[in-house]
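#data-curation
PF: Archiving a pair of folding outputs for the training set. Convention for this channel: one message per protein, sequence first, structure tokens after, nothing in between. First:
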Amino acid sequence: MKIDTNSIKKIAHLARLEFDESSAEKMSSDMTQILDWVEKLNEIDTEHVEPLTTMSSEINDMREDKIGQQLDHESGLKNAPKRDADYFRVPKVME
């Protein structure tokens, strides 16, 4: 599959990327090679192959949850740079 420079410019606009004309030509050939490689993968018979759920063969070693010592409310707020009664005071993030 051949990707032309117009398609590259459209993809770049959607991805908020900017590059010059020579980079667009290079990107076009690179993306064409990637799509050709994916097409080649479609030719492989995968009918009896189980799908992967993860790329790692390691198994998570889960520990049992245990209740431990927790900070009380006042101790948690003790070193806060700014506080308002029972809460941390933080700068406004959204308007």
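PF: Second:
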Amino acid sequence: MTDIKTRARPAAVMLTAASEARIAELMSKAPEGAIGVKLSTPRRGCSGLAYSVDYVMQAVAFDEKIETSGGVLYIDGGSVLYLVGSIMDWVEDEFAAGFVFTNPNATGSCGCGESFTV
């Protein structure tokens, strides 16, 4: 019998240190029963898809699970193909704060940056 060698596959989304720190902050204030945060791409906005980050209370079979130093990030199984190779960052300035995504799969986005197309 042949030995089967497996290797870890890279995560669909890479996280910056700032986004991991934000996940840690969110988890420190999470509602009871939250097991992590979940990134998904619901259909909305003028370009079709948007980024959404919410607390998650239970794992779903086809979601991707990424262990970070700040907590667990789940990626919605139906959204993974739209997000492969993306970088998730947390950016704050004097006027706004939020997760920012560099997505190589996005072929366009709306003027306000709230939604994207693939």
